[in-house]
Every structure is written in structure tokens, then in C-alpha cells.
Amino acid sequence: MARRLRSELYRQLEPQAWRRAGLSPVNRALVALILASVALAVLETEPSLGAAFHRGLGVAQVLIGGVFLAEYVVRIWIAPEDPRYAERFGRLRYALSWPALVDLLALAPAFLLVGGGEAYLLRMARLLRILRIARLGRFSRASARLIAALAARRFEFAVTLAFGGVLMLLASTLLYLVEGSGQPEAFGSIPRAMWWSIATLTTVGYGDVTPITPLGRVFAGATAVVGIGVIAMPAGIVAAALGEAMRPERRPTVRPQAREDAAPARN
Amino acid sequence: MARRLRSELYRQLEPQAWRRAGLSPVNRALVALILASVALAVLETEPSLGAAFHRGLGVAQVLIGGVFLAEYVVRIWIAPEDPRYAERFGRLRYALSWPALVDLLALAPAFLLVGGGEAYLLRMARLLRILRIARLGRFSRASARLIAALAARRFEFAVTLAFGGVLMLLASTLLYLVEGSGQPEAFGSIPRAMWWSIATLTTVGYGDVTPITPLGRVFAGATAVVGIGVIAMPAGIVAAALGEAMRPERRPTVRPQAREDAAPARN
Amino acid sequence: MARRLRSELYRQLEPQAWRRAGLSPVNRALVALILASVALAVLETEPSLGAAFHRGLGVAQVLIGGVFLAEYVVRIWIAPEDPRYAERFGRLRYALSWPALVDLLALAPAFLLVGGGEAYLLRMARLLRILRIARLGRFSRASARLIAALAARRFEFAVTLAFGGVLMLLASTLLYLVEGSGQPEAFGSIPRAMWWSIATLTTVGYGDVTPITPLGRVFAGATAVVGIGVIAMPAGIVAAALGEAMRPERRPTVRPQAREDAAPARN
Amino acid sequence: MARRLRSELYRQLEPQAWRRAGLSPVNRALVALILASVALAVLETEPSLGAAFHRGLGVAQVLIGGVFLAEYVVRIWIAPEDPRYAERFGRLRYALSWPALVDLLALAPAFLLVGGGEAYLLRMARLLRILRIARLGRFSRASARLIAALAARRFEFAVTLAFGGVLMLLASTLLYLVEGSGQPEAFGSIPRAMWWSIATLTTVGYGDVTPITPLGRVFAGATAVVGIGVIAMPAGIVAAALGEAMRPERRPTVRPQAREDAAPARN
User: Under DSSP, is residue D117 helix (H, G, I), strand (E, B) or coil?
Assistant: First the structure.
């Protein structure tokens, strides 16, 4: 009977073991709990919410931590259901696998909170709970497909990044030379001018630091125009990568003959 | 004779019943009236326009409301022309359909205005008129096609949104840790830092809140660079989705043979 | 002999009559002169350049105006070389054609400047010279191809624009309700809030006007996220339209057979 | 034996001569050294780092310069290994080739620094070291492919740039007319208004200069909306160009027959 419970729990907890579409009820509840836990960790940093609210948040975090602790224990217990961990030392090997270690790491802060401790470190530690959200990744089969499409273009992204870096260097150098003497705080060195150039090339444009001389504005305008290219390149690469990746996923049952004829046109 | 009038009105009011290209004259007038009504509702909120102008706006809104009331009554009268509402209780079933309820909801504020009432609620209620614009949607067959192309990619958009959310969380946490003590008002908690991180990741970059420490600026620069990815992803998904959706709409008369051969290349 | 001169001038001035690649030497000189004339008109508005400089600009504009006047006269003289204006009243019909009228309109300010006159009107009139740049359009055959590709998608752009307009209305209304009482100057009416919402939806983000209440910032953040969609849509439509348009232009000599086989895959 | 050393050095230094994937160990070290040298040149401009740090940077730059000098000499020695420089005067012809001259130019500042000299020129000269990064380009075969794809679309980019220039002119002129009298510093001439219009059309939106009159804001809003098109166009062109360029690189072994049939669909 423990066997059947273990098998059912495995089916509920392991997305790949779930036959029907979407997530199992248990996994759906866990996702909701992870999101709630992260939202609480975010709210805990807000000082204006009052002491009573913070006590409530602390209690909620401990309760949620208890559920995740239970889940962690259950996952170790059911590990041998997974063919990879079916052999001996399976549970130990599972406990040392990357997903299990992330789970353990994300469990820590909930209980450090109870025991008290050095304030600053605890504040850091609490934020580790946000790592829990990384576990959402394993629930999603399709995001992996998207990541694969982008990863296949990682070289094009690297070239774009390098190109953007050279442009940032060039823009920072020009503005340092032109605006450096007039605005030493903002453009008095190339590293300082980089704060401006990155805000301009990404078209964020905070405006806390802007050139004031005519020549500085001419170079800044040219940088802004070139910045369009810097944001157009990744958009274009993503579009081309997804345009390719989206097509085959829709036609899993093409006749071999047709596939042969039109193959060059396909991808 | 009433029958012929009803049939003609149905042809004029129901876009699908209009055989010729574009909208019927009556529908074109209604679209213009909806746009005028929304523009008036927007102008009504501007206090600097003067009392006489506001009285004029009020009168105009009542007149436009009268036209929409007449249209509402006519639409109920002609409902049985629609095959879906031709059977018994057709008019009642039409009156309870979603488009008819939106019409009714959008009618309400025009007449609440006449009767007077609590000022704040009325101000809210007047804005409901803007819902009228939602009716424009039913005039347009083609926007549905665009929406369908994007809806087919809703999963990719959701993954991008989730990815953007994780990035926002990460950027907010880093800036909270680095800039929190120096600028408690802007970065004193993760929720506060989110205002900055969302403005940066979307490349809006208001600049009302910016990091001032060197380390904060390094993280902010990295966030801005990553933000390019956040805006490149949806642009790429839209491009891939539309690239696919636009193709078939142009070739409705492809020979079956050719269609068969090149089918895998098409979508 | 006048005949041969007329024929040669027509070949030099009419881009379509020029057999070799690119622009004829005369047209290349005219394009340079138009650009110089526009640059001078722009510089003329700058008060800090000094009286002597402005006198020099004035003289230069009159000289350039003389060249354009000569070109205008020559174009009328050679009009009958064009098959469209070869019949009787050809020169008159050419003089009343749209390109000739634009030329005439762009000639006016250069000579109004000489005669003196009311200062404000002259300032306006001088700017008409910028219209000359519109003539560059007729030199370029290829930009027409780009415009055609985008014009074929004008409906998709219109839907995007309407969608963006509804979003702007919604964002302005929300911010007006939430921030209107606290910042009456910036959000005290829907038209005022539109200044903020258009800067946010287009991701320009000036930052001269930003929400200060937590709820206002939540809505503003949502608007910024939605704004990504507003800029992703046109980028995606352009990408899809050009992706289609770029292909056929490269293969003007495809064998009919091959064209037939792969036709469905092509556009 | 010198022959074998020369051959081995050529294999290590010339990326095309390296048979295995990626870069040779020597080239990998050189890339790291170039990046370090550029980073040091950037840090040298920061005055807050202290005199001791700057002395250290100076020493590091001379050491790195020594390595690059050695590399320059070695490259001249091994030049005849390259078939292009195998004939007589090969070393001289290599020394006069573009890559060798860039190397020489980038070597200069390291040793000018040692000899002392006029401060301002030296500051400029040091920045020439950044040119060294241009040599990274020759290590990368694939970036050339990306550049080729974009260069094939240079005409479309030029049309977009011209279109953006006309829009900038139009927006600057309108804002000059409307806001010029109220804000003479920011909009008192068309060149001044261009600083605002370029920040708006590129969606950078610094916000240091914004219109304040209602009419000025209406025109500015329209400019921001049009600016979306200005950034959507290059993104779309890049997407279409890469969408095309990415395809053939994956299928180098298509059967001639299939290639013939579907050729029109390919590019």
C-alpha cells in the first residue's frame, strides 16, 4: 500500500509522470504556494507595513516553509520511482542532484528566521526564498523549447553584445572627451560616461545625466540613433529564431514525401 | 412593410449582413458617434474648459445618448432577423447576450447625468461610456484575425512575462540591497525598487528614481541590457506569429495539388 | 540642336529616363543642393549664429533659389519629352501636376525673403523650403518598394493604432482617477493624463510627470508592460511584411516551372 | 627547426590556420590581453582611483604593450607562411596591410606614455589603444556572416534613416514654432529642437527638455507614436534579413534536385 501511495505521489509531483494535459493538482497548489511565498518575501522588506503585519508574514513564512519541508521529505522518499534513481543509493543521488539542492537551499531561510540571528545576513538569507521560483522552470516543458530556440542563436546574441559593448566604449569615450571638463561628475571619466551611454544605447534614457554642449548633443544624438540598431538586432534575432522554431512544432505528422519536396523551404 | 424596414435596418446595423465592402452608412455614422462620445467624455474631465463649455458637453452627451437609446431599441426590435434569435424568446435572448448588455451598460451614464446624483460615482459612471468603444470590435472582422494569430502564441507570451517577472524580482532585490540604505525612499524595500526596475526593464526610463552608487549603476546597466531582451522577445514572437498568419490570407485559390506538395512550407 | 539639348536635359533630369545605375550627375548635384538648402533653412532659425552669418545664409539661399528657379523653367521647357506631356498643352498640364506645384511652392520663400515683409509669416514661409526635400522621393525608386510593402499592411497598422489608442484611454483614465487629486496639474483630467500615458506606452518615458501613489505606480507599471506590446506589434508587422517583400525582389528570372512548384512557399 | 617554429606560430596566431574548433590557446590569451588592455585604458581616465593605482596601471600598460610588440614582430616574421605573402617582399606587403597597420597604430600609445609628452594629446593617444579591440573582428568568422546579412540590406537601412531624418526635421520644426517662444533655450531654433526630437523619435526620452504647451504636447505625442515606427522599421529589416541569412547556414548538404525545386522559396 505504501508502494501505491509512493507511486501516486510520484505521479502527482513529477510533471513528466503526469499523463493528462497541464499540471497535476498537487503541482498546481505548489506553484501557487511558491508564488505566495515569494510575494511574502518581497513584502517583508517593506518597512511601512507595520509590526503586526510583519509578525503575520513571519508566521505565514514558517507555515509555508513547513509545507516545503514536507514536500522535500516526500520527494526524497519517492525518488526511487524515477528510473534514474531506481538503483541503489538512488535517494542519496537524488538528494545531491541540482533540483534537490535548490529545494534545500530555498528551505533554509524559513527556519533561520525562527532561530533569529545577525540581522543583515538574515535579510540576505530571506531573499534566497526567491530561488524557489526557479523550480517553476521544471514544471514547464514549453519554456524549455523557447530557451532551446534562443540558445541555438547564442552566438548571434554574443556578437550583438560585443558590438553593443564596442559602441558603448566609443560613445563613452567621445562624451568623456567632449563633456568631461564641463560636467566632471557625470562625464569626468570613461567609466562615469558609461552610465550615460548604457542608458542611451538601451533607449532607457533616464535623463539624470545628459550632455549640455552642442557637440556633446550631436554625439549623443548619433549614439541614440545607433542605439536603435542595438535594440533592433536582438529583436530581429529572436524573431528569426522563433520564426524557425515555431514552424515544426505544429506539423508532427507530415508525409515523408511532402517533407522531402519542400524541405529546403521549411526552416 | 414593417418587415421590409426591419430587414433593411438589420442589413444596415449588422456588419455580417452587409454584402458590400466596408461598413454600411448607418454603421459608419455610429462609429463616428461612438468616437465623438468618447472624446466628449474625455474632455468633460478637463476643469479648465469653463462652465458654459461643460453645459454644452452635457447637452451633447444627452443627445448622443438618445441616439444610442434609439439604436438599442431598434436592435432589440430587429433581433429576430438574426438566425440565432429567429426562434421564440429571440429578442429576450438577444437582450441578454453580451453585446446587448454592453450597449445597455454604456447607455446608463448618459441618463444618470440628467438625474444628478453623487458626484464621485457619476464621474466614474461617465467613464463607462468609454466601454462603447468596445463595440467597435464587432465592426471589424480583421482585427479578430490579428488577435487569433497572437492568441495562438499566448503561451510564448506567458513564458516571456514570467521570465520578465523573474528578472524584475532579481533586479529589484539587487538594487534594494545596494541602494536601499542610501535612498530609502526609492529603494528602501523590494516593492519600492520594483518601480525603478519595471521602468528600466521596459526601457521606459522615467529617471525619477535612479541608482547613485557605482555598484548600483553597474547592476542597473546590466538590468537595462537585459531589458532589451525583455522587449525583443515579444517583438520577435509577434513577428513570427504574424509572419505565419499573414501568408495564407493572401492565397485563397491555391491549386490543391500545389497546396499538397508545399504544405509543410506554408505555415 | 535645341531638340538634342532638350532630350539630353530630360535624360539628365528625369530619373526614369536615365539608363545607367544610380542618379545622373545633374540629379546628384540637385539632391546635394536640396540637402544644403534645407540645412541652411534649419540653421537660419538659430539666433546665436550672429548677424553676419545670417546675411551670408540669406545670400546663399537666394543663390540656391536661383538654381531651383532655373531648374523649374528647364523642367517646363523639357516637359514634352515625357510621353504623358507630349500632346498639346503638355507644358501647362505639367505645370499643374503635383511635382511641379511642389517645386513652385518651394521656390516662393527664397524670393519672399528678398522682398522683405511681415516677420512671423516670413519665418513660416522659410520653413516651406523644407518641402523641397519631398522631391527627393521621386529620385528614389526603391523607397517606393518599401512603402508598398508597408502599405499592404496598412490595415494591421490601423488595428494596432486603434488598440494603442484604447490602451492610452484606459491608462489615462486609471491614472486620472488615482493620481488626479494628488497631482492636479499632471493628472487632473484625462487629457492631461494622456501626456503621461503616451510617453509611457511608447516607452519614451520623459519622466517630467510620474505617478507618486503606490496604486498609481502599480497601474503605471502595468501600462509600461503593456506598452512593450504596443511597440512589439508594429515591429512584428514590419518584420513580417518585409520578410515577405524582400524575397521576390531578388529573383526576377525564376523558371516558370520552379515558380509553380514552390509558389505556395514563396510569399 | 626555425621553419617548424614559424609554422607552429602561424598555426597558433592565424585563426584560419587553426584546424580545431574555436581559437588556438595563443589567440585566446591575446583576446584576453586585448580586453584587459582596453579595460585598463578605460580605468586610467577615472581620477578618483588614486596616484598609486594610476602608476600601477601605467606599468601594466607598458608590460602589455611589450607583449603586443613581441606579437607584432612575430607576425611579421611568420608572414610568409600565409600564401598571400609567400612571394618576395611578402613581409613588407604584410606590414603595409590593413591589419598590420592597425596593430602598429595600437602599439604607439603604450610607448608614447613612457616617453612623456603633451598631456592632452597623450590622453587622446591612450584611447587609440581601444582600436586594438577592432582586431577581435578578425578572430571571428561568424560575425562576418552577420555583417554580410545586414550589409545586403544597407539600402533599406538608408531609406529608414532618410525617413527618420525627415520626421526629425518635421517634428523639430513644429515644436520650434509652437514651443520656441515659451522655451527659447530648448526650442528657440530648429537645431535646438532637434535635441528633443532625436531623444523622442529614438524613444530614449531623457526628459531634460519637454514641451509644456497643450499644442506642443499634442505634436510631441504624435512624434512619440511615429517614433515607434522609426524603431520598428530597423527591427523588422534586421528580422527579415537574419530570417533569410540563418536558413542556408544550417543545410549545407541539400540534394541538388531538391535545391532546384524549392530554390525560389529559399532566399
Answer: coil
Taking CA–CA distances from C200, the nearest residue in chain A reads A204
Terminal-to-terminal C-alpha distance of chain D: 50
Identify the three-state secondary structure at position B212: coil
Q: Note the pLDDT of residue C111.
A: 62
Distance from CA of D166 to the nearest CA of B (A): 25
Alpha carbons D176 and D191: distance in angstroms, whole number: 9
Mean of the per-residue pLDDT values of chain D: 77
Q: Distance between CA B11 and CA B26 in Å, rounded?
A: 10
The answer to whether residue D264 scores a pLDDT higher than 70 is no
Cβ <8 Å between A207 and C206: yes
Q: How far is CA A139 from the centre of its chain?
A: 14
Average pLDDT of chain B, as a whole number: 77
Contact A241, A152 (CB under 8 A): yes
Q: Which grid cell is C213?
A: 501613489
Look up residue B15 and give its three cell numbers: 456588419
D143, A159 contact by CB (below 8 A): yes
**Contact yes or no for D240/C242 (Cβ under 8 A):** yes
| Amino acid type, A257 | Q
pLDDT, greater one: D216 or D114: D216
Contact A47, B189 (CB under 8 A): yes
- Would you call A256 an interface residue with chain D, using a CB distance cutoff of 8 Å? no
- Please tell me the distance from the alpha carbon of residue A193 to that of residue A210, in angstroms, as a whole number: 10
Q: What is the mean pLDDT of each run of 10 residues along chain A (267 residues)?
A: 88 77 77 81 82 84 84 90 86 86 72 47 51 50 75 83 86 90 91 94 92 94 90 86 65 38 37
Instruction: Say how many CA atoms lie within 13 Å of C263 toward its Cβ.
Output: 17
Average pLDDT over residues B132-145: 56
Residue D189 has pLDDT above 70, yes or no: yes
Gap between the Cα atoms of B100 and B106, Å rounded: 10
If you measure CA to CA, which chain A residue comes closest to D250? A267
Regions of chain C short of the pLDDT cut 70: 16, 21-22, 108-142, 246-267
Contact residues, chain D, for C198 at CB < 8 Å: 221, 224-225
Amino acid identity of residue C61, one-letter, is Q
Predicted TM-score (pTM) of this structure: 0.82
d(CA B239, CA B226): 20
Chain A interface includes C142 (CB < 8 A): no
- pLDDT bucket at B214, cuts 50 / 70 / 90: very high
- Chains touching C by CB (3 or more pairs below 8 Å): A, B, D
Percent of chain D clearing pLDDT 90 (strictly above)? 22
Contact partners for chain B, using 3 or more CB pairs closer than 8 A, are A, C, D
Using 50, 70 and 90 to split pLDDT, how confident is the model at B22? low
> In this complex, do D221 and C258 lie within 8 Å of one another by their Cβ atoms?
no
Tell me the three cell numbers of residue D238: 534586421
- As a dihedral over the C-alpha atoms of residue C50, residue C56, residue C60, residue C63, rounded to 10 degrees, the angle is 140
Closest CA to C58 of C115, C106, C16: C115
Which of B205, B203, A194, A229 has the alpha carbon at shortest distance from D206? B205
C239 chain-A contacts, CB cut-off 8 A: 236, 239
| Percent of the residues in chain C that have a pLDDT greater than 90, as a whole number | 21
Q: Which amino acid is at C252?
A: P
> What CA–CA distance (Å, rounded) separates C217 from C224?
10
The DSSP secondary-structure symbol of D195 reads: H
Q: Which three cell numbers stand for residue D256?
A: 541538388
Query: For residue C92, how many other CB atoms are within 10 A of its CB?
Result: 12
Rounded CA separation D34/C108 (Å): 59
B18 within 8 A of B12, measured Cβ to Cβ: yes
Give the helix/strand (H/E) hosting A176.
helix A154-179
